Amino acid sequence: MSAPPERSAAARVPLWPGALAAGLVTALAIAFMWAENEWEVVGVLVTAVVGAVVARRTGWLEPATRALTQREPAMNRLAIAGLFVFVAFFHDDHFPLLMVGTVLVYLLVCLGLTIQFGYAGMVNFAAAAFLGVGCYTAAVLTVHTAIPHLLVLAIGGAVAALIGSILILPVLRTRGHYSAVVTIAFVLLFKTFLEVNDTLGGPQGLKLPSMQVLGWKFNQNFNIAEIEFSFYVSYVLVALLLVVIGFAITRRLERSWIGLSLDAVRLDETASACFGIHIARWKIVAFTLGNFMAGVAGALYALMLGFIAPTNFTFGDSLIMVSIVLLGGIGNPWGAALAAAIVVMLPEKLQLIQEYRFLLYASLVILVLLFRPEGLLPRRLRVYLPGWRPR
Amino acid sequence: MSAPVLALEGLSRRFGGLVALDRLDMEVGEGEIVGLIGPNGSGKTTSFNVLTGIYEASEGRAEFFGRDITNLSAQAVYEAGIARTFQRSRLCLPLSIVDNIMVGNHKRLRRGLWFNLFSRAAFARQFEQAFEEARELVRVFDAPLAKRMFEAVGALPMIDRRRIEICRALISRPRLLLLDEPSAGMTEDETRELMDDIMEIRERIAGLTIVIIEHEMGVIERITDRCVVLNFGKKICEGSYREVAADRQVQEAYLGVE
């Protein structure tokens, strides 16, 4: 067979176009956050969009995407390095760091959604509610108990998964997109419940102490070699750690027999059943795992913000999370990362459109569905073992 | 004498007042190829659906190697060793050829979370072995197709999709294969090619038993040992192709009565 030449070609895929692309994206993100007024922001955005379109039309994007798919471990490290450069650049500036932290939290939720919606095909419009369960769990535990905060993150996830299991029965009774109805009902119920529940602060919400890990207090700025760092850097690092773990789990899940079973369940339940795939089992696995990730993200989010209120966990927020998955490319974790950055950061910087953010998301999603129906970075065919070629 | 591969006794399925399958009795011996024929709506596909756990039987009994499989779940029927194809292709079109065949291999693959997520070296070994097997199987059908294992099924022509569907059913080494109109939507040449493939598969896999639903009488004549003819859910005739083709009732069912 003609496999050997292909193999050597794969090994020779150059990394530098990917590195260049990662560098440019980092530079754009920094410029975007650095911009002082609306016009500069718009300038950066126009540059980014025009750059992306030109790169695509001229075929310059091709080597970069090839590097992204063929030189994956190196590209993963480059992406993390890019984030570190961003953090180093804004090391004492709270706002951009809070933004990055928020993007990472949203990304973790959307990785959970990728498993639920992208793989198993269960539309979950209650992502904000599961994020909220994590938040409130963290608030209650950190205020009333002395449980170590890293453990609180895990418990936040576990509680979200547990509460999600209440929904499993009604969700399993639905086929296809009808799980949307069940989850919409839940997210509406959840917010109302929080608002009338006085022990959980009612509409005023709850305050949290700052995070503390092994005596390291997250609420104060710190110095390394006489350079002062914003306290948000600590949160960003924890968020990054969680996202890396979530990313690895999502990736490995997709590249395994489980990912295949989830895809089969999404695409054809009857045929799946005829080949021994237990539909309910895999839906439960996907739903629980996704909610766990949302809960962990929520626990960290609450600690990072220091204050939570029911208004953070509305149907609208769930909609934003689902639109991130759609925008990025359903089932592609890199797409979710890119889209999370765009969707979270854009309205924060463009104060002008703050009030119209839902309008913006709606038009963005419609535009993407029109021109790139599979999202910014469409999911590719499954590669079980990266770099592997048949003999 | 050992139990037949498949034995149906009075198997029935009603949808409200409609009797889609009416007390079907049928036996299939090991290594046989049995044709299930009849006009549209005569209950052929219904019988497959009842057998494979998609529909529940209203009455009657189905045995597989002497074991009662009536109203088992679709999953349990597959685990027992019955695999099928569908009349309208039910492949996962956005997925690759390997993916689709591996769906059929479900019972032989390890499904544990730990195995799949964390013991990647063991997973890689299982994957390589399963991939090799799948490619061998595809090669029997079509050598060039075996070089395109990582391409999306949606881009393939109808005949290749049918081949992949049959491979998906065969990869788990079932003892009974149910083929639901494999020639549907294909040209005469393609049908002939596919039948050659099926005959070859049968020679390679000793003891494989096949029940095939077909409208192409040429196919039935060529590959079946025996035929069962259904009309309005009832068995009206059974025998070799020559015998059933000469039967008056069968001719009436197909051509109508003057």
- The N- to C-terminal Cα distance of chain B equals 45 Å
Supply the number of helical segments of chain A.
16
Shape of chain B: globular
CATH superfamily of the largest domain in chain B: P-loop containing nucleotide triphosphate hydrolases
**Extended strand count of chain B:** 10
Give the helix level of chain A as a range of percent: over 70%
Low-confidence spans of chain B: pLDDT under 50, at least 5 residues? none
| CATH architecture annotation of the largest domain in chain B | 3-Layer(aba) Sandwich
Q: What is the chain-wise order of helices and strands of chain A? A: HHHHHHHHHEEEEEHHHHEHHH
DSSP summary, beta strand count of chain A:
6
Largest sheet of chain A: 2 strands, antiparallel
Structural class of chain A: mainly alpha
Describe the structure.
The complex is a heterodimer of chains A (391) and B (258). In chain A, the strands form three sheets. Chain A has a two-stranded antiparallel ribbon. In chain A, strands 2-3 form a two-stranded antiparallel sheet. Chain A has a two-stranded antiparallel ribbon with strand order 4-5. The termini of chain A are close together. Helices cover 71% and strands 4% of the residues of chain A. Chain A has two domains: 1-89, no CATH class; 93-371, no CATH class. In chain A, strand 4 (222-224) and strand 5 form a beta hairpin. Chain A is mostly helical. With 258 residues, chain B is of the alpha/beta class. Helix content of chain B is 39%, strand content 23%. Chain B has a six-stranded mixed sheet, with helices on both faces. In chain B, strand 9 (226-231) and strand 10 form a beta hairpin. In chain B, helix 3 (97-104) runs parallel beside helix 6 and helix 5 crosses helix 6 (158-170). The mean pLDDT of chain B is 91. The interface between A and B is large, with 31 and 47 residues.
